């Protein structure tokens, strides 16, 4: 059986709110080789799967990259707690991009 490609949901940045008790997170859907499929700012990394994968308007980016939408069928989706957990190739590519190039979201 062929191993499925892997995609990651990972927080790339966190901003503290004015009250210093709340945060917003810049979440990204990232491939093994560092392509960023999409980004989204949300209040919790726990919403990343819904916001970047499950929401119907996001399906097309997964279909274009993997030929279909479906964790476990077309790719393996892994949620990470920090960008340091990305594969070396992905981390190197994301963090060496010219400023502003990594964030291209709707």
Number of DSSP-assigned strands: 4
Q: Order of strands in the sheet with the most strands?
A: 3-2-1-4
Low-confidence spans: 102-106
Largest sheet: 4 strands, mixed
What gross morphology would you assign? globular
Structural class by SSE content: alpha+beta
Distance between the termini: 36 Å
Radius of gyration: 14 Å
Oligomer: single chain
Can you lay out the helices and strands and say which pair or pack?
Layout lengths: L5 E11 L6 E9 L4 E7 L5 H7 L4 H8 L9 E4 L8 H7 L12
Parallel strand pairs: 1-4
Antiparallel strand pairs: 1-2, 2-3
Features:
single chain, 106 residues, alpha+beta, 4-stranded mixed β-sheet, 21% helix, 29% strand, disordered C terminus
Structural summary, described in words:
The chain is an alpha+beta fold and 106 residues long. It has one domain. Helices cover 21% and strands 29% of the residues. The chain contains three helices and four strands. The protein has helices at 48-54, 59-66, 88-94; strands at residues 6-16, 23-31, 36-42, 76-79. A four-stranded mixed beta sheet has the order 3-2-1-4, with helices on one face. A hairpin with a 4-residue loop joins β2 (23-31) and β3 (36-42). It starts with 5 loop residues before the first strand and ends in a 12-residue tail after the last helix. Mean pLDDT is 87; it is low at 102-106.
